[in-house]
Amino acid sequence: MIGLKYVLAVFVVFFTLYTTACAKSADVLHPKPKFIENNSMKVQVGQAIVLDSSKEFFNKYKESVNSLTHTAAKYGEKTQNLFKVTVLKTEQFPHLNEMQRVYLNKPEAYLLEVKTNSVVISAKTDRGLLNGLSTLEALTEEQQGSLSLGKTIDYPDLKMRVLHISMWPCTLEDFKETIRLARLEHFNTLIWLNHFGVELNSLRHLKINNINPWTIEQFKEMVAYVKQNGLEIIPELKLLSHQDKFIGEYYSQYMFNKATYDPRKKALYKEVVFPDIDELLLLTGATKFHIGHDEVAGWSEWHYRTKVLNKGEQQLPPELFFEDILTLHAYLKQKDIETWMWSDMFYTKEEFPSMKKAGANLNGMNGYAELRSKIPKDIVLNVWHYRGKQDAFPTAKVLANDGYKVLGATWKFEDTTVNYARYISGLPQNAEGMIATTWYGLSGEKKIEVQDIIKFSGKTFWNAK
Fold first, then answer.
1. 240 vs 316: CA distance, rounded Å
2. Nearest C-alpha neighbor of 345 from the set 302, 301, 293, 399
3. What is the DSSP string of 167-178?
4. Domains and their CATH numbers in the chain
5. Boundaries of each Beta-hexosaminidase bacterial type N-terminal domain copy (predicted)?
6. Beta strand pairing call for 189-193 and 160-166
């Protein structure tokens, strides 16, 4: 049974038989499906939608449904005829062959069928249904309202397809545009770096220079928007390292050096760190939290030449790095929150000589790499390598073999993204997926570059093998 029918009165999906070629958008907004069976006949989308779905699905993904209706209104043709798009959660696919049914047993798989007088999206899970709905929307936009008759079956190669964003500078409109694009590219998780730009009570010590910072209510609205686009939220705070702004400018008494706070100063956690974590967990309802911990300054002369550290300052000793991890992990674990962190401080160039060209991120000198076997095994390690054309990424394999869940992380270099995603998809154990980092604000001059990263990475992560 489909369940409760939801008719969006003004929005009806209408398809008329359409055999001429349609204009195609230059940008493809969704990953290439693994199985397509289409014919030369086409149908033209109308300007409105009738959606037949369960109440649960409609409420869970309301913003995604609304986005589809707006896309149909933009690209569809005017008509008074009514037509239905059915979103059906089911375990049975009797009209498919055995191989097609095997495909639909995959996590997040979906079946999208475009017929002469109907569209049906079927899947075993809500997540699969959302993927199908998003593909329908992307096709409607790409093909300017013209779709081929036939069926599409698809599923992801990677379990977690994560987008990492640095949200500031960022308008509400650009944030929504970014999240919608991430859904169309089938990302299912968002690491949300929150330091500047939101008037959170726990972050009032930060001076927000932008004239339009988000209020808490606006932040909560965006949290709901992310969830209704099907992305799990993982808040991130840059903790321990990169502290010149977050802690250094306001709590100099807690600093070990210019860039790193001192884990021996226990009042720091009670006064600043734990309240920040608590507020973000409360507002997002997250079950995972990212604690940062990348690039602990002091392992390179570059840190002194560029004044990341002052002359004469020393790198934080590895035992204090380890102490901070244990403190944060214990705090999160007693709240039943999974800890995520960057892993670059756990290996060296000497240990992995083949990885020297994979970006400056083999930073575990001065005894840091020796901590690798000591940190709790339930911490999820994010193994970032941004450059290079190598096929193998043995840092991720070693960590996975040691019993840690790992995700690869890439940036804007496409060869690295393709090769790393393929490598992660081939690991036999503990490979959770891939992360696309952006490291630019979502508004401003880098907006198009961020969108290009999302488009390319989303397609690559979905079809990693």
1. 10
2. 293
3. --S--HHHHHHH
4. 15-154 (3.30.379.10), 160-462 (3.20.20.80)
5. 30-148
6. parallel
CA neighbor of 259 nearest in space, from 321, 341, 349: 321
Q: Whole-structure pTM over 0.85, yes or no?
A: yes
pLDDT at residue 424 tops 70 = yes
Band (pLDDT 50/70/90 cuts) for residue 347 is very high
C-beta of residue 223 within 8 angstroms of C-beta of residue 200: no
Write the CA distances from 180 to 59, 87, 175, 332, integer angstroms.
17, 19, 9, 30
Catalytically annotated residues: 295
> Quick one: which H or E segment has residue 39?
strand 35-45
Q: Place 82 in a pLDDT band, splitting at 50, 70 and 90.
A: low
Tell me the C-alpha distance between 462 and 465, whole Å: 9
Cβ–Cβ under 8 Å, residues 434 and 162: yes
**What distance, in Å, lies between the first and last C-alpha atoms of the chain?**
35
Q: Decide: residue 95, CB within 10 A, 0-12 exposed, 13-18 middle, 19+ buried.
A: exposed
pLDDT band at 180 (very low <50, low <70, confident <90, very high): very high
CB 360 within 8 A of CB 308: no
